[in-house]
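Protein 1 of 2
SEQ + STRUCT:
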Amino acid sequence: MLRFFLDQKRRTAEGGFTLIELVVVLAILGILLALAVPRYLGARKRAYKAEIDNILQEAKTLSWAYYQEHNLFPTTITDIALQMPGGAAWQTPVVATGGGAAAFIQWSAVGQAAGFPVTPTDECWITLSNDGDSDQSCDF
């Protein structure tokens, strides 16, 4: 009788995972995360770059329309009535240099305040000149 009881207890105690199995699973999950996180962050950065590219292209189009109508570049964002999309990670572009009767204008946009993925040290700009040339660049 005692032998039957001990055999039954041994059989029920054999269920579950060993420590080695759990460590192996955690190691595999760690490797998968190490591969996935950089790809996710890279895709996220490219998405924010595409967002500011679209915003600056709209500023470019509106600036050229303003230039055609007034024969000078706008001096503020209100001159071209640029509307930022809701939830944008970028602050509204400002005229960094030029504008008015100058030969060129440069719109500059920086990232939102701390807590956003794009920081105030991240900057993109677009330069338009009155001969029709334009150039766009980012430093992040």
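Protein 2 of 2
SEQ + STRUCT:
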Amino acid sequence: MAGCQNKDRSGFLIQTQSSYNFEETLKILNQSIRSYDGLVQLGTIDHAKNAKDVNQTLKPNTVILFDNLQMATHLIECNPSMGLDLPLRLNISRNYQGQVFIQYTNPEYWSLKHNIKDKECL
């Protein structure tokens, strides 16, 4: 498991380091999603809390679930398998060095994964 964080994910995931601590990053992202016209926040998954519930520990790691319902409907019309990647998700994590990262799926990957070639769908 120690080497899992170092795998090359450059094509499928986009990762950026936050300038804020974990809690502040989560707060800023939640506020941004709620205030952005067209986005709906659907919930969060606190993986660290879930680990604690089964007597294990994780560094802070939370997924924010959100969507643009018009866009999601359009993408699913283009290919129903898009439902596997929707709602949209942001993963916020803190590593052992205390660095906070935001990760999400590269939208360009969807066209490959779901074989979407119609430009109107992208």
